[in-house]
Amino acid sequence: MLYPIRKNVRLSGGTVTLRAWPATVADAHLSDLLTLTVTLGTLRDEWANFQRSDLEPGVWAAFWRLVHASLEAGSPLPQPVTWDDRLKLLTAMWDLNDVEETAGKLMALTQRSARLLTRIQGQTTPPLTSSFSASSGRSRMPA
What we know:
- The protein has 143 residues and is mainly alpha-helical.
- It has a domain at 22-117.
- 49% of the residues lie in helices and 11% in strands.
- The chain has 5 helices and 4 strands.
- It has helices at residues 23-28, 30-41, 57-70, 83-96, 99-122, and strands at 6-11, 14-19, 131-132, 139-140.
- It has a two-stranded antiparallel sheet. Strands 3-4 form a two-stranded antiparallel ribbon.
- The chain is globular, with a radius of gyration of 24 Å.
- The N and C termini lie far apart (59 Å).
- Residues 124-143 are annotated as: Disordered.
């Protein structure tokens, strides 16, 4: 499936052009993209039923970083940005980028992390002990 490269989005304060994220942007903002994918992806069908205050500030911080990474070079974001504008921006970013593929990557990373954590917890590490030398008054750590 081919994705568009640019999209004009009509906001309440004017029109803005968003572009698809190049690989460098997607890699640099992977945690932001994953935050949005996980948090907003599940809410996508019900966006209109939510308000800005329903989401944590960290989610909005990730959103704004991605919006600014998506703006066409030199294209300012028209102000003010309403709730409806946010939904339009989010929809445009979703359409321009393969966010569903990122959700799959997140699932794979989560599963790998869980397996690694299980493996680490299954290994027992001998406790670190120290001995105190009464003659010197100093602790000695075993080698």
